[in-house]
Amino acid sequence: MSVTPAQTNQLKTTKTQVKRVPKRGHYDFEVVAKILDEGLVCHVGFAIDGQPFVIPTAYGRVDDNLYIHGASASRMLKSLRSGIDVCLTVTLLDGLVLARSAYHHSMNYRSVVLFGKAHEVTDTHEKTAALRAFTEHVIPGRWDQVRAPNQTELATTLVLSLPISEASAKIRTGPPIDDPADYGLPVWAGVLPLTQMSGLPIADTRLADSLAVPLAVPDNVRNYSVSHLARRQIFQ
Amino acid sequence: MSVTPAQTNQLKTTKTQVKRVPKRGHYDFEVVAKILDEGLVCHVGFAIDGQPFVIPTAYGRVDDNLYIHGASASRMLKSLRSGIDVCLTVTLLDGLVLARSAYHHSMNYRSVVLFGKAHEVTDTHEKTAALRAFTEHVIPGRWDQVRAPNQTELATTLVLSLPISEASAKIRTGPPIDDPADYGLPVWAGVLPLTQMSGLPIADTRLADSLAVPLAVPDNVRNYSVSHLARRQIFQ
User: Fold this and answer.
1) Which of A62, A90, B26, B174 makes an SS bond possible with A39, Cβ 3.0 to 4.6 Å?
2) For position B117, which CATH number holds?
3) A13-37 per-position pLDDT tens digit
4) Which chain B residues contact residue A194 at CB under 8 A?
């Protein structure tokens, strides 16, 4: 799928259309991709004989493909490679919305719900690109700092791809929306912004002496919070 | 279900048993409840005609019942009230695990996967208790600060309960585990801790003048981060 800014709603289908509060629904590839790129964990849903499973896992994106991976023995991945339907969801929590009534409490969030069938990636070039995407997704620049996968690791890692072609984003921003009569109540109302922050890096105790000093922490690790936040717009 | 500390593994079934890296699996009610209490958003999975859906939503817990809610017209809740199988997952991300090889990169996390059938709560007493739990789950103390639900709001809110009786927690903590030969590589390795932090409260622009001052922010809102973090153990 080639996506240009002129296209809109290209990911909208009967299945992805947001039914509850339709004004919060978005179907543009760029909106969806931005949320996927900011998240770190997705929740993968699939059903076996009607029994649903929802499993959290890491992921990566290359253009209009989303990749997940794991050990070849993974129950989830073995089920998915058979080509069953998947629903993959990423949710970013941006704030607690504190209204004047219990009823109108809410959250500010950005979420993506992606539908499709996952397929095993067998091409070595695509598989390596996907593994690179997983690592770069966590911390940009990391791939070139670490030992690349060897043949055995490539062989024992199952990579699945899911096309980003049927998806929706749902976004809530802004203050609480109270009942008109409640605005006069003596209740503090507003938004408590939430964001994922990193603490100080914790060096592995088995680092060589030359690496076990603060200056040895790579810049992309040291500056993670800053760079991560810089990628965000502020959605409150 | 009456749970005493002497009981262990009481939530373990064939379905909940953690297959990948079994040592990370936990089946004690107290472990599961603690993770549920710290999370803010769950991902609810269900299947309709084999098509899985994974929807993020808020929740609350009262003893060994987990509650979700929404508008009576919600597609998800209408599907769930019919008694279909549900898988509900809560994931807390605690850190990025940066290994010496791309292959051993990981995340520190605590997750709960809960299976069961959701049932509509019709008893007014239980329904009100569930609504209280939703509000208190977001910020303890909030319920008594706001206008309680009126009869119309109660009637148009669908509340579903899911017993916490078949579940597993999966927890990863600690440093990267690298291949023995990789420990000599000149690669910085360690953990970058992650946590959800709150920013300064943003007052609703429609607050009365007397409430639109910093001192009017309730203590439970002002001290949210502190109290939220105090509820956490440090899992890195």
Assistant:
1) A90
2) 2.30.110.10
3) 888 888 777 888 899 999 999 999 9
4) 40, 196-199
